[in-house]
């Protein structure tokens, strides 16, 4: 017997909260509490306060690039924006509000290490120099859940070319901001803050590798790593460092935040592979956010045609951890 | 005898309230599941929450005997079985929802439990709770006899240790609650190390206050050792964090507050009874238990 239970998200379009109401429900409640629906209404008409303060918001939406296909429909924005690992702001997934404490401007991005000439660039100037586009990619978390997001950003290849690395540079290390005043997680001084991640130059300049400034046709919400984060769709999500302030080119393999914490569970390569379990759980399947049924995980998260060749000649490394 | 009745079949308000309260977390989870307020992975949420409650209730059951003495409240014993059986029920829910989360693929669930050591440990703890639940009825207690029953139910200490290890091991970054559990466990066990004769009166309260400080210090040390072994954080640096509130209230501080709070409540009650007992104070009528 097949019993079809209607899931929570299986709702008619008419039941969907209009986006401006969803993002401003606090102002709405405040407005009502103040006994002034009018005041609340004005705040609503003003739109998203974050988008307003963000000088890059007029650049959106970016031109769509349809070359890369995602395996499933786009995840509802509300789920993608409110279910996030961002340990700087707390160890639960509900950091959407807490992460808003991070000031996004001025936002200086530092380029250093083995490049022709180290320099610093504000995020808005950086965006002006980069070929902005939108791509729909799947995101597979190491915790065996996944989503599909229309990311806005630019190919990291363009950023590497701008930085002009020296011939000896083999890796790019990326670091998150460090600001324990607004990021309570960073007050636990025994963790290896700031969050660090790294790619080989070949990975960083692969056509898939995206530096992300927005999603769903708008600047990123704080919770998703605004104003600048990485996305490597064939790797587990923890590689996708958020709130990036530094790119350092180096000949030494960087040790990432999670590798420092637990090298036996989280490695440098972290490529998606259903046949290599995490020591504490299987990676064979994944929960798609907003969907109860699990789906099988695919090697390289389905992006093998673009990246599998990168690893052909690498021997003796744990590529899938 | 229903869970809300005393041994003579009358309504026992304390038991009735506790019995109803035990359903609150499950009802909350069920509501959250149906109302879709548990986020995009509701089963994962329920697995975590039901596991949390299983351990918490196991600790409530373990705390009853010490708290009876400390608070001078023998009637608390009426809640011990209820808390223990509820711990088993939440642990059963925990496992059932895990099985649901692997799409009811029993083979996969069994393989995972076998392959992942922390799951194995949790599973053993749950299996070990079952005989305790089965023998929790009055009839079984009589059949086993007090001595054998107590010996069997001492397994709950070992189960608590397994549960704490399982709890630590599944944590990704946040080990606050397992550290708190470990600290409380040490304090509860310390009570059992007191000689029977010393398990009463002011001397016992003083001893438990001292042990509260010791348990909190050990909790801080466990936390520091965890970070030292896992991240190589200097012990002193993690221990230092207990002295301020920069990281919020530390787990050791919570252990200290909970344990000293219990001792303080017990001392306040004892002081009240001492005054009430004095002839001519007129407070006697306020404290019928003072006759005991």
What tags apply to this protein structure?
heterodimer; A: 321 residues; alpha+beta; Sulfite Oxidase, Chain A, domain 2; seven-stranded mixed sheet; five-stranded mixed sheet; 10 helices; 12 strands; B: 292 residues; mainly alpha; 2 domains; 74% helix
Description:
The complex is a heterodimer of chains A (321) and B (292). Chain A is an alpha+beta fold and 321 residues long. Chain A is 19% helix and 20% strand. In chain A, a hairpin with a 5-residue loop joins β11 (285-288) and β12 (294-296). Chain A is globular and about 45 Å long. Residues 6-14 and 30-51 of chain A have low confidence and may be disordered. Chain B is an all-alpha fold and 292 residues long. Chain B has two domains: 1-170, no CATH class; 172-278, no CATH class. Chain B has helices at 13-22, 24-35, 42-71, 80-101, 106-115, 117-134, 138-144, 146-153, 155-170, 176-193, 201-231, 235-240, 251-277. The mean pLDDT of chain B is 90. The interface between A and B is medium-sized, with 32 and 29 residues.
């Amino acid at each position: 017997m097949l019993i079809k239970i209607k899931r929570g998200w299986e709702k008619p379009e008419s039941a969907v909260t209009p986006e401006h109401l969803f993002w401003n429900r606090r102002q709405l409640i405040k407005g009502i509490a103040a006994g002034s629906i009018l005041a609340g209404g004005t705040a609503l008409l003003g739109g998203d306060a974050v988008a307003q303060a963000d000088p890059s918001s007029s650049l959106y939406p970016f031109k769509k690039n349809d070359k890369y296909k995602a395996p499933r429909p786009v995840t509802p924005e509300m789920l993608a924006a409110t279910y996030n690992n961002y340990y700087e702001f707390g160890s639960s997934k509900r950091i959407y509000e807490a992460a808003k404490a991070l000031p996004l401007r001025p936002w200086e991005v530092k380029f250093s290490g083995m490049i022709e000439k180290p320099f610093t660039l504000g995020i808005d100037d950086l965006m002006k120099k980069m070929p902005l586009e939108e791509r729909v990619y799947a995101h597979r978390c190491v915790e065996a859940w996944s989503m599909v997001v229309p990311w806005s950003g630019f190919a990291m290849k363009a950023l590497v070319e701008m930085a002009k690395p020296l011939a000896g540079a083999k890796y790019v290390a990326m670091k998150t901001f460090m600001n324990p005043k607004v990021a309570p997680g960073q007050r636990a001084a025994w963790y290896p803050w700031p969050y660090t991640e790294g790619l080989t130059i070949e990975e960083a300049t692969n056509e898939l590798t995206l530096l992300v400034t927005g999603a769903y046709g708008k600047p990123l919400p704080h919770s998703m790593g605004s104003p600048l984060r990485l996305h490597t769709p064939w790797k587990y999500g923890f590689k996708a460092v958020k709130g990036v302030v530094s790119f350092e080119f180096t000949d030494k393999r960087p040790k990432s935040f999670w590798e420092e914490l637990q090298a036996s569970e989280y490695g440098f390569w972290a490529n998606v592979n259903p046949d290599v379990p995490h020591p504490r759980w299987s990676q064979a399947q994944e929960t798609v956010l907003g969907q109860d049924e699990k789906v099988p995980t695919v090697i390289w998260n389905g992006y093998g045609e673009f990246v599998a060749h990168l690893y052909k000649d690498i021997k003796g490394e744990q590529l899938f951890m | 005898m229903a869970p809300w009745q005393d041994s003579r079949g009358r309504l026992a308000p304390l038991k009735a309230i506790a019995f109803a309260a035990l359903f609150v977390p499950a009802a909350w989870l069920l509501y959250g599941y149906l109302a879709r307020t548990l986020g995009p992975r509701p089963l994962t949420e329920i697995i975590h929450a039901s596991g949390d409650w299983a351990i918490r209730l196991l600790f409530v059951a373990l705390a009853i005997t010490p708290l009876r003495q400390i608070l001078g409240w023998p009637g608390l014993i009426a809640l011990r079985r209820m808390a223990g059986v509820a711990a088993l029920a939440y642990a059963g829910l925990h496992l059932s929802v895990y099985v649901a989360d692997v799409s009811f693929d029993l083979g996969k669930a069994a393989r995972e439990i076998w392959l992942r050591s922390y799951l194995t440990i949790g599973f053993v703890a749950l299996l070990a709770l079952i005989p305790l639940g089965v023998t929790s009825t009055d009839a079984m207690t009589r059949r086993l006899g007090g001595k054998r029953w107590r010996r069997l139910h001492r397994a709950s200490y070992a189960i608590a240790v397994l549960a704490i290890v399982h709890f630590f091991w599944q944590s990704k970054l946040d080990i606050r609650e397992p550290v708190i559990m470990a600290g409380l466990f040490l304090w509860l066990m310390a009570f059992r190390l007191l000689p029977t004769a010393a398990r009463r009166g002011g001397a016992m309260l003083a001893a438990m206050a001292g042990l509260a400080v010791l348990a909190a210090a050990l909790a801080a040390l466990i936390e520091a050792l965890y970070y030292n072994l896992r991240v190589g954080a200097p012990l002193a640096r993690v221990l230092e964090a207990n002295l301020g509130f920069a990281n919020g209230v530390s787990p050791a501080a919570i252990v200290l507050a909970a344990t000293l709070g219990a001792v303080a409540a017990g001392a306040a009650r004892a002081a009240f009874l001492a005054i009430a007992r004095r002839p001519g104070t007129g407070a006697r009528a306020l404290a019928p238990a003072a006759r005991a």
